[in-house]
Design goal:
Elements lengths: L7 H12 L8 H46 L35
């Protein structure tokens, strides 16, 4: 939004009132209205700056929150398996194949 100039609101108000048949002439009443319009323009401009700043901060915090949620809910990576051990050459370390034992049948 573009900032509002100090006299812009007063000029629009004067044009609006002139269209309705009311003309503001120089005087204390017109100066009071002009200062009120100036304060209103300042308030609108400052609030617009504050809203823009708040939006930037909200977006930044929202991105941080999304990142944290993503990190917490992302699937875990599988751990890397340890490297295979080299077989030793000692005879005790090598496993001997078992002999198959004869099966006993439970039937008579």
């Amino acid at each position: 939004m573009k900032p509002i100039q100090k006299d812009e609101l007063y000029n629009h108000l004067c044009g609006f009132l002139k269209g309705k048949g009311v003309e503001l002439k120089e005087g204390s009443y017109a100066k009071g209205i002009q200062s009120g319009c100036s304060l209103l323009a300042d308030a609108v401009n400052l609030s617009q700056k504050g809203i823009s700043r708040a939006k930037v901060q909200m977006d930044r915090k929202l991105d941080q929150m999304r990142q944290a949620i993503h990190e917490m809910t992302a699937p875990k990576q599988a751990p890397t398996p340890p490297p295979p051990k080299a077989p030793s050459s000692s005879p005790k370390a090598q496993a001997r194949p078992r002999k198959a034992s004869p099966r006993k049948s439970g039937r008579k």
